[in-house]
Amino acid sequence: MYILRRWWERYSVQTILVALALLASWSVRATNGVVLVEIYYWLSYPFQSTPSEAEILEIAQHQELQQRLLELEVQNQQLQTLLGYVANVPDETIIAPVIGRPADQWWQQITIGSGRQEGVTEGSAVLGIGGVVGRVINVTPHTSRVLLVSDPSSQVGVTVSRSRAKGYLRGQSGDQAVMIFFERVPDVRPGDTVVTSRLSNRFPAGLPIGQVESINLEQSPAPEAVVALGSPVGMLEWVIVYPHSPIEAGWDDSMQRSEVQHSEVQHSEVQHSEVQHSED
Amino acid sequence: MRISDFRPPIRRAFNWGVTISSVLCCNLILLTRFPGMELLGVGPNWLLIWVVAWSLQRPPLQGAIAGICLGLMQDGLTMHHPTHTISLAIAGVLTARLQKQKYIQEDFISVAMIVFGMAVVVETVMAIQFSINVLLDRLPGSYLILTGTWLYHQQVALSSAILSSLWAPVVYYPLSRWWKMIRALG
Predict the structure, then answer these.
(1) Angle (deg, nearest 10), helices B46-55 and B85-97
(2) Residue A157's closest CA among A237, A258, A277?
(3) Which domain holds residue B125?
(4) Side-chain half-sphere of A16: how many Cα atoms within 13 Å?
(5) How many domains does chain A have?
(6) Interface of A with B (CB under 8 A)
(7) Predicted complex: ipTM over 0.85
(8) Residue A136 carries which DSSP code?
């Protein structure tokens, strides 16, 4: 008892302090630090920024406007590029936005936002930056449907601008097309420019279409060349319509006929020369 | 007005006031994330810094009690399981056992080194507690939880140790000055 009392006399203050400290800490734990968190709240209150609902809405609106501005800037830039491009095209042209493109016929057709009212006629050539992209096959008062050159059913009479080797271009549902030559041994090299042919009446002559990428002379029945389309057909947003009407009705058939005749002539010549060659 | 002008009981009360408010400050600053106080999402362990500052010149028992008290507070402010009391108490005892005055000079660098080591100890004890809990719960996929815990432990231990040791002088220097002065007054 005496020892206990001595101990208490000596350590009472420390014991009480330790007990108090433990009690205080335990209460902090038991209350999940309510007091501390409240103190923290009131101390940090001057530094807290709580935007009101109106402010949040204002910020959101501001952001929306900024995004719209960005979109308009991009659009503006595209249009300016197109205008600069159009300045070099002599004839009267119509600039039209691409307003529709079927996902399942991506490389076949587009719908543009200009029609009869704007002066688009059936058969008008359609250009993008870089070259021909197609021709108008259907016109409504305010829209037109364009058959793209990348459509496999599209055939365009073309010529190699360097050597005037002629042929026709068939789409391949992609940004490349195949040029089929009429001659047996055409003068063509990779890198040659391909333009619309004077024999074609679907398009005005001399419009650029693309560049020869590779050549396959072994192809039967006629040699072929892969042509990379000059215009990015996959990402068209604005196009230039080049009003152009076919020279005479039903010309398409006659042109094909004439091309076929032409190629037949060429073929027979080639055969003839081969015969001569073998005779030698 | 100097602190030595006060009578001893008032001075002692003043000392306790300063000590308790320093604990309070450490607790409050634990809730904040000032810029530059974060590394890989981990902040400095302010309570550990306080425990080390407290235990450096005191017997191990006092270090342990301080560790338990601050551990309880940290439990209250963060989460109860696993408890922080064990790790902080161990840190307090180890720091007091170092007997710094004999072996190490009292300067910022050695304090920073001690805090660095203690932070690693504290995080390791926490990770061991986590692992024991996982093993006792016998949850499915406990192996994955364990691997994750120990991988994360390395990252947390290192970031916590670096930050705590860098910030240690902020807590240590004023407190040690104050306690030294009080002790000198008797």
Answers:
(1) 30
(2) A258
(3) 3-185
(4) 6
(5) 2
(6) 17-18, 21-22, 24-26, 28-33, 36-37, 39-40, 43-44
(7) no
(8) E
Question: Please, what sign has the CA dihedral across residues A270, A271, A275, A276?
Answer: negative
Q: What is the largest CA-CA distance in chain A?
A: 141
* A28, A36, A40 member nearest B72 (Cβ): A28
With a cut of 60, say whether residue A272 has pLDDT above it: no
- Whether residue A105 is found in the same domain as residue A187: yes
Q: Which of residues 74-113 of B touch A (CB under 8 A)?
A: 75-77, 80
- Chain B CB contacts of A28 under 8 Å are 27, 72-73, 76-77
Please indicate, yes or no, whether residues A130 and A24 belong to a single structural domain of this protein: no
Q: Is A66 a member of any domain?
A: no
What CATH number is attached to the domain comprising B111?
1.10.1760.20
Amino acid, single-letter form, for residue B16: W
Host H or E run for residue A81: helix A53-86
A73-125 pLDDT per residue, tens: 888 888 888 777 766 665 678 889 899 888 878 888 899 998 888 888 888 88
- Yes or no: say if A240 and A82 are a contact pair by the CB < 8 Å rule: yes
DSSP codes joined into one string, B60-73: HHHHHHHHHHHHHH
CATH value at residue A190: 2.40.10.340
Mean pLDDT across B127-137? 84
Domain holding A19, by residue range, is: 2-41
Q: A270 lies in a domain? A: no
| Nearest-CB residue to B27 (from A22, A36, A44) | A36
In angstroms, the separation between the Cα of residue B4 and the nearest Cα of chain A is: 22
Confidence (pLDDT) at A246:
63
Q: Is residue A274 one of the residues assigned to a domain? A: no
Secondary structure class of A193 (helix, strand, coil): strand
Interface test with A, best of B22, B27, B79 (most A CBs within 10 A): B27
Set of chain A residues whose Cβ sits within 8 Å of the Cβ of B77: 28, 32-33, 36-37
In a domain, A277, yes or no: no
The answer on A233 and A108 residing in a single domain is yes
Which residue in chain A has the smallest CA separation from B77? Answer: A33
